[in-house]
Amino acid sequence: MNPFDPADPLGIDDLLEPEDLAVRATVRAWAGDRVLPYVAQWYESGELPGIRELARELGGIGALGMSLSGYGCAGASAVQYGLACLELEAADSGIRSLVSVQGSLAMYAVHRFGSQEQKQNWLPRMAAGEVIGCFGLTEPDHGSDPASMRTYAKRDPGGDWVLNGRKMWITNGSVAGVAVVWAQTEDGIRGFVVPTDSPGFSAPEIKHKWSLRASVTSELVLDDVRLPADAVLGEVTGLKGPLSCLSHARYGIVWGAMGAARSCFEAAVEYAKTREQFGRPIGGFQLTQAKLADMAVELHKGILLAHHLGRRMDAGRLRPEQVSFGKLNNVREAIEICRTARTILGANGISLEYPVMRHATNLESVLTYEGTVEMHQLVLGKALTGLDAFR
């Protein structure tokens, strides 16, 4: 019997294939080299310098649209994509968000609902990181209720589409070369592939954030943006389109949140073994060990849950309700792990010399984006009772 591994107490790595471990090692090494040495400064300054270079590097290791097939995408398994999300968010939620929005929202929408021309035009460049994408669904007055969006696309007599409206809290918005924008039409909600150099399109960056500071967040403004008839994503009408994209992205969050939690847990363990009070390391006190034990239990239960959902996705059996189950549990537990880690670090827990407070504040955004706690509770409540409590 193998000795107990504090880093893998449940032996979850035994469930991984050599290819899974190779993907994890590649992404972990990239994040350790290109993000971890600098991310505290990025967070403190509230910017993500060199984002286009980072995107190209992420494309170079196959991390953009990695679970998609063809068009230059890696065709990785859902579990491999999840492992990548975990390692990226262990560095910073903003980096995982960059990859998630690019691959699971913008690229996924084009890959699943776009025409061959749209796929061939955009996906290879997006997979390589040459073009950054964003995803415009949330509006200033309509977040959890996207069906009430006000952004509108109207056909003119010549066949062109004309878009007007605003989107809010859009990751990658001001650095994107293409935006997937969802809008009301006479036929229902439709998706549009919008080159960001289109006249009437602008994406002012949102400042004064105290969360996801090492991430680009923008507003999208569409003022009589004229698009050709073939700019529409022709294979879907209604909320099924954006919600299916969100389900794919939420799956990545299930893994990613555990990366942030792991980073805080590891910082707490190391600190507890070296920080001395009352003549001994604080890790030798019962109360500290109880905290660490509870953190380890929730961390590795969350990783096991993520792995289970990944295998279901690879088998084509993952339901949206199960994704809600994972996001609700794992983000909530990740926040609690971060807060407990902060108590172990004491005053040092608020310092950017340690990752704890940065992860904790980032997770406050992860908690509510792509479905608030309340929305996922209601998804599960409806699934459990058969009764719709959304309205």
UniProtKB/TrEMBL annotation:
One of its GO terms (molecular function) is flavin adenine dinucleotide binding. InterPro entries: Acyl-CoA_Oxase/DH_mid-dom, Acyl-CoA_Oxase/DH_mid-dom_sf, AcylCo_DH-like_C, AcylCo_DH/oxidase_C, AcylCoA_DH/ox_N, AcylCoA_DH/ox_N_sf, AcylCoA_DH/oxidase_NM_dom_sf, Glutaryl-CoA_DH_mitochondrial. It comes from the Bacteria. Residues 134-225 form the Acyl-CoA oxidase/dehydrogenase middle domain. Its cofactor is FAD. Residues 18-130 form the Acyl-CoA dehydrogenase/oxidase N-terminal domain. SUPFAM superfamilies: Acyl-CoA dehydrogenase C-terminal domain-like, Acyl-CoA dehydrogenase NM domain-like. Residues 238-384 form the Acyl-CoA dehydrogenase/oxidase C-terminal domain. One of its GO terms (biological process) is fatty acid beta-oxidation using acyl-CoA dehydrogenase. Keywords: FAD, Flavoprotein, Oxidoreductase, Transit peptide. Belongs to the acyl-CoA dehydrogenase family. This is Acyl-CoA dehydrogenase. It comes from Streptomyces resistomycificus.
